Amino acid sequence: MTPIFSLYTRLTDTLERADWLLPTLARLLFAAIFLMYFWVSGLTKLGDGFGGIFSPSTGAYVQMFPRMMEALGYDTDQFNMLQKLIVLFGTWAEFILPALVVLGLFTRLAALGMIGFIAVQSLTDLYGHGGWADAKVLGAWFDRFPDGIIMDQRALWVFLLLVLVFKGAGPLSLDRALTPRR
User: Fold this and answer.
1) What are the structural domain ranges in the chain?
2) Could you tell me the pTM of the whole model?
């Protein structure tokens, strides 16, 4: 039995020395799976023309404040300045935070921002869009179905981002390139 454990220890010691691999793969997977998801979602929130980046579409308000939009007859002029800023900054966050994660710039902070974004997105899906009433949206842990949007899928999203919070961006990143050598 000792030769088996020796072989196992040699192999796992090699993996432990490859500390650069985990954050690099986490950023690669984030780019492959989520970059376009968030960017396309952000594009649906932009207003018309070049100035649309400063004037979110009505759809942005519907996605972020669904019940309030319905109550106000879909009139965005009735929103106060704070609500308008939330929609504006939320729209920008869908572009900026994923780009920072993929580039590996301010990665830990950007990953924390993405975790907060996903939390707000999930709460909006549950409260604003009525996800509590749909078991497929909420899902459940320790059941046999891995497809619940909130409990299953978004938990994995957050875990991927937590790797970046704890490990950083890895060696192939702007964080590493811009950090002075010690």
Assistant:
1) 22-178
2) 0.87
